[in-house]
Amino acid sequence: DAGITQSPRHKVTETGTPVTLRCHQTENHRYMYWYRQDPGHGLRLIHYSYGVKDTDKGEVSDGYSVSRSKTEDFLLTLESATSSQTSVYFCAISEEGGTYGYTFGSGTRLTVV
Amino acid sequence: AQSVTQLDSQVPVFEEAPVELRCNYSSSVSVYLFWYVQYPNQGLQLLLKYLSGSTLVKGINGFEAEFNKSQTSFHLRKPSVHISDTAEYFCAVIKTSYDKVIFGPGTSLSVIP
């Protein structure tokens, strides 16, 4: 969707290195989310934000941190990448929580070798 | 705690045949319900949602879903599928508050020519 972009689209990194994924939105939505998608697990929430500098943990937050210094940007950082963090990462945005649905980005495929 | 069950992980169906993808949820409070579709190598896209009112909800691409409170179900249907409907379909639920969306594990729909 034009209102939300993720970068990079693909990344290969080595175990132990830090990695930052970026989510950028042009919709001025208050809520932003990071999910990971893995076969057999569906989508699992990593972290989310309900405003600038307001973030909270999801169900699989260990090993991840986030920052939101501007409404439009939500960064996900893997402090020290591990092979278990190989996954497809999706960012989503919503205007008023999840009540009216999310808009998803196209995803970032991360491979940790 | 809420949970979402999608009873079929894979559903093969012939082109122009009808299809039903099943979704059941568990919640002790009222909820909002959603279906999302994910085409290969893309993010999720909102297909339809139930917030209140009529229990039969119509969405994009000819899909519809029916909310059944007594059976805690929200099954997705289409009377005649096309090859282009081949995708992963996710049922999702959120409480009637600023809570986080819970996604089901997904159903892979394969339309056979």
Can you tag this structure with a few keywords?
A: 113 residues; mainly beta; 7-stranded mixed beta sheet; 4-stranded antiparallel beta sheet; B: 113 residues; 6-stranded mixed beta sheet; globular
Description:
With 113 residues, chain A is mainly β. Helix content of chain A is 0%, strand content 58%. Chain A is built from no helices and eleven strands. Chain A has strands at residues 4-7, 10-13, 19-25, 31-38, 42-51, 54-57, 64-70, 73-78, 87-94, 103-104, 108-112. Chain A is globular, with a radius of gyration of 13 Å. Chain B has 113 residues and is mainly beta. Chain B is 0% helix and 53% strand. Chain B has strands at 3-5, 10-14, 19-21, 24-26, 31-38, 44-50, 56-58, 64-68, 73-78, 87-95, 102-103, 107-112. In chain B, the strands form three sheets. In chain B, strands 2, 5, 6, 10, 11 and 12 form a six-stranded mixed beta sheet that branches. In chain B, a hairpin with a 5-residue loop joins strand 5 (31-38) and strand 6. The mean pLDDT of chain B is 92. The chains are: A mainly beta (113), B mainly beta (113). The interface between A and B is medium-sized, with 24 and 23 residues.
Produce the secondary structure layout.
The complex is a heterodimer of chains A (113) and B (113).
Chain A lengths: L3 E4 L2 E4 L5 E7 L5 E8 L3 E10 L2 E4 L6 E7 L2 E6 L8 E8 L8 E2 L3 E5 L1
Parallel strand pairs in A: 2-11
Antiparallel strand pairs in A: 1-3, 3-8, 4-5, 4-9, 5-6, 7-8, 9-10, 9-11
Chain B lengths: L2 E3 L4 E5 L4 E3 L2 E3 L4 E8 L5 E7 L5 E3 L5 E5 L4 E6 L8 E9 L6 E2 L3 E6 L1
Parallel strand pairs in B: 2-12
Antiparallel strand pairs in B: 1-4, 3-9, 5-6, 5-10, 7-8, 8-9, 10-11, 10-12
